[in-house]
Amino acid sequence: MSRLATSFILGYHGCDKAIAEKAVRDGADILQSDKDYDWLGPGAYFWESDPLRALEWAKWKKDKGDYKEPSVIGAVIDLRHCLDLVSREDIEILKAAHDSFKQVRKKAGLTMPKNSNPRGAKDKDRVLRYLDCAVFRHLHQIMEILERDEASVQSFDTVRGMFAEGGKVYPGSGLHKKSHVQIAVRNPSCIKGLFYPLNSN
Q: Using CA atoms, how far apart are residues 38 and 115, in angstroms rounded to an integer?
């Protein structure tokens, strides 16, 4: 996206209240996620324009015992050099990365990772995105190598993806209850400011 225009968006991050206070009050960095099943690969994750979804996620983390008190912080994010998966051009970049990753795995005699669900999950969304995350990591490695060798190539600062998630909004609908746009911020300097959204905590 940023190859064509500068784009500022508002993103919302669900977290524990203690983390939120450190980030907003003290300017602490948002924690970067680097799990093997992250949907958009490594980065600090935000829900675009959706503080309610961020709060739902934080409450879910509390129910799992991960958070003591769910909270949401908002961020002004400059997408900069963004791998925007709503763009046809950037989808083709990701597809090429998958083809390259597949060749590397084959040469090494390794099987491809697969997206899956936790055991016992009834959901069909395959929320553990092992394959997708591995492809993103592979793409970022390629970009970092190219950036070192060619001045015209730049690594991605952010990744933006749209996801249809959850059950149908109503019977026969093509829309899903938890559909969202997510941002993974790889470059912390893209976060220009943090704030508490109104009526979200």
A: 10
In whole angstroms, give the CA distance from residue 70 to residue 14: 7
Locate tokens 């026969």: which residue?
A: 172
The DSSP bridge partners found for residue 33 are: 43
pLDDT, tens digit, for every residue of 102-128?
A: 999 999 999 999 999 988 767 677 899
Long-range Cβ contacts of 16-20 (<8 Å, 24+ apart): 16/58, 16/61, 16/66, 16/67, 16/68, 16/69, 16/70, 16/71, 17/67, 17/68, 17/69, 17/70, 17/71, 17/201, 18/68, 18/69, 19/71, 20/71, 20/72, 20/73, 20/196, 20/201
At 105, the amino acid letter reads R
**Token code pair at residue 15:** 């977290």
Q: Where are the alpha helices (DSSP H) in 67-183?
A: 88-107, 130-149
For residue 82, the SS3 value is: strand
